[in-house]
Amino acid sequence: MDENFSSDMWWGTLGTIRPFPNFHPDRDAADIQTALERKDMVVLVRILTNRNNAQRQAVAQSFQDKTKQDLSAALKKVLSGDLEELLLQLVMTPEQLEAQRLKAAMAGLGTDEETLLEILCSRSRKTLQEVAAVYSQMYKKDLEKELKAETSGDFARLVVALLNKAVTVGSVQRDVQALAASLSGKKAEAGPWINILTSRDSDHLDKVLMELELETGQAVDQLVEKHFSGDFRLGLRVLVQCIQNPEVYFAQRLLTMKTSLVQGIMVSHSEEDLLPIRAAFLRLSGSSLYSTLQKHFKGEQLLALQAICRSED
């Protein structure tokens, strides 16, 4: 396993999970093997939530060398339900996790548009390219084609543009003018919103959206609400939130306390920016994420989620 997989993206200092200082992958692998034989979930949770992802990959490799078994397959045999899903997500690489979450969002009846958008809006082009490569390894399907098959119209154009974010330099003033002009006709034009919001860096877009608010005298989310509809409106709303205030967006997602969302977001952001998300959660809801988890989850699943959350705010 390449230790350097997109470490630039996954290693923020604002994460809750740090490298475990006294790390011995062979010892962890042996402890996991014993815990699996005894069906001791507490030990599994303790090890897997106290190592960072690179360390968990090393443990999985060591487990495979020692037992000739794949760690995920071994976990599946003794676990079930939500705890199984959570621990399996911890054992995946970050790219595998996002690929799996995208796949799940497109599975079954109806697409979970917001999870697609959450990942596509909040990840960099480089990360999304790596996720797309892993997606085609895992599922033998092309991510872009799958996204196109699940979406249509302006929303499909937006989703594909987000997947292939191209960073081009624009002038703030010109971008503001183009967005304002796109809203002036009878029917708002989606084109400039797709082009500009998926092809500039976030500092530039922050300025553009602030200027647009000054120029129109309305908040961007109100403009989006008023001029667009359906999936495309949802897409722009998520994109604008991820540009203006990603922590608040993720905190709002966590407020639902929906198991798949809470687990997916907490694992996926644990080494990157879960601390600011936790702070935003406290501001929005008046209670800490740590104690809110206690009201909604129990047993080893609660232990695992609180370990990822790390502490009270």
Give the overall shape, derived from the CA principal axes.
elongated
Strand content: under 5%
Which percent bin holds the helix content? over 70%
Which structural class do the helices and strands define?
A: mainly alpha
* CA-CA gap between termini: 35 Å
> Could you report the average pLDDT, rounded to the nearest whole number?
94
**Oligomeric state as shown:** single chain
Largest sheet: none
Count of beta strands: 0
Evaluate the radius of gyration: 21 Å
**Stretches where pLDDT falls below 50 for ≥5 residues?**
1-11
List SSEs in N-to-C order. Answer: HHHHHHHHHHHHHHHHHHHHH
The count of helical stretches stands at 21
Secondary-structure map with pairings?
Elements: H1 7-10, H2 25-38, H3 41-49, H4 53-67, H5 71-78, H6 81-91, H7 94-106, H8 113-122, H9 125-139, H10 143-150, H11 153-163, H12 172-182, H13 191-197, H14 202-216, H15 220-227, H16 230-244, H17 246-255, H18 259-269, H19 274-285, H20 289-296, H21 299-309
Structure notes:
- The chain has 313 residues and is mainly α.
- 38% of the residues are buried.
- It has helices spanning 7-10, 25-38, 41-49, 53-67, 71-78, 81-91, 94-106, 113-122, 125-139, 143-150, 153-163, 172-182, 191-197, 202-216, 220-227, 230-244, 246-255, 259-269, 274-285, 289-296, 299-309.
